[in-house]
Design brief:
Layout (H helix, E strand, L loop, with lengths): L2 H37 L5 H7 L6 H9 L18 H12 L3 E2 H10 L9 H10 L4 E3 L6 E4 L15
Antiparallel strand pairs: 1-3, 2-3
């Protein structure tokens, strides 16, 4: 076995250990983010994780923070600037990974630089999203919308027979 192969094997072992530890940390990270959301503060997880030498990249931090549905991702004030409602909503839902309420979506778009206009912004946004067919209302959950791709087992509407 050459030196590079030995190093690759060692690297793979450390990656496996890292993934195991990251999975153990997920509930703690979600709890921290949830508490910070409740008190209105933002967490710099990358700094916390770097200090503890567990994770050091923002990409890993974001994936841990947004998976599992606990906490919401931190958004920049210009996150959705210049995007359509459709693009901004799709981007946010993909990051969160599950359906959200229209109220949350309106707030997120506003805070991300893509405020929804109209006499009734909630209705404006809802109609523009569900017309696209990429978004679906959640049955039994009034005012919630998700991406169709989140629900692969959901049947398409029945085509009428001619």
């Amino acid at each position: 076995m050459d030196d590079k192969e030995v190093l690759r094997n060692a690297r793979n072992l450390y990656i496996q250990q890292f993934r195991s530890k990251a999975e153990e940390m997920r509930p703690l990270i979600q709890r921290i983010l949830s508490l910070d959301q409740d008190i209105g503060e933002a967490t710099d997880l990358s700094a916390i994780l770097t200090e503890s030498a567990a994770l050091s990249t923002e990409t890993e931090t974001a994936s841990l923070a947004t998976s599992g549905g606990g906490a919401r991702p931190k958004l920049r004030p210009d996150e959705f600037m210049g995007k359509t409602y459709f693009e901004a909503a799709k981007s946010y839902l993909e990051r969160v990974g599950h359906a959200v309420s229209m109220d949350e979506l309106l707030e997120v778009l506003k805070n991300g630089g893509c405020p929804v206009g109209g006499k009734t912004p909630r209705k404006t946004l809802y109609i523009s999203l569900v017309r696209s067919r990429e978004f679906v209302p959640i049955p039994g959950q009034s005012g919630f919308v998700g991406l169709r791709k989140f629900y692969p087992n959901r049947g398409m509407e029945k085509k009428s027979k001619k």
